[in-house]
Amino acid sequence: MSTGTSSGETTAAASAAPTMAGTATGTLGGEPTVLGLPCFIAGSVSFGLAQAGVVPAAAAGAALPIILGFSAVGIFLTTIWAASIGRNVVATVFGIFGGFWLSYGALLLGTLHGWFGVAPASVQAAKELYLVVWLVVIVTLTLTTLRLHLIYTAVFFFVDLALLLVFLGVNEGSAGLSKAGGYVALVFAALGVYLYAGTIGATTGGRALPLGRPLI
Q: In this structure, is residue 22 part of a structural domain?
């Protein structure tokens, strides 16, 4: 069924959509996402493999060196870089995910070592609190950035879905739901790879990959 919109009009609308690429306004420059995206990919793959059961539950802390040592640090550096050149949307998105990875590492360390006064019997409740709070934050991010290109909405949607599935897995004691959340995390990691390939291609003189028309 035709929408009555020509391909030229569609292309123009998509190219005019707000984007995380943006234009630098400060004295510095560069493209912060060339650092932030691989950090996002690494953390997402680590999270996904851990939730999918590739890493045994007894070795859940195996993801921490990547999540804390690379993802959280690199994403916060990306946030500072983006903010310093006036890329507010980039700074917001990466700042949120930096907080997610840092707090995820804190949650794992805290529950594994009995920090924060969380008794062993309350570990499940602590995980549920963490997942609900971040589900609310990322859903809010998803809904308030619908004017961005479709690829970004897709990434945020799959993050929402992964958090929901992992929460349900923890709440209901279902390993299957938690594994499903892990596999969904690998999906948004793959979308991150696509974004990174497009960003690197564009910054090295190639053609940018299509990002999709925004929903609104």
A: no
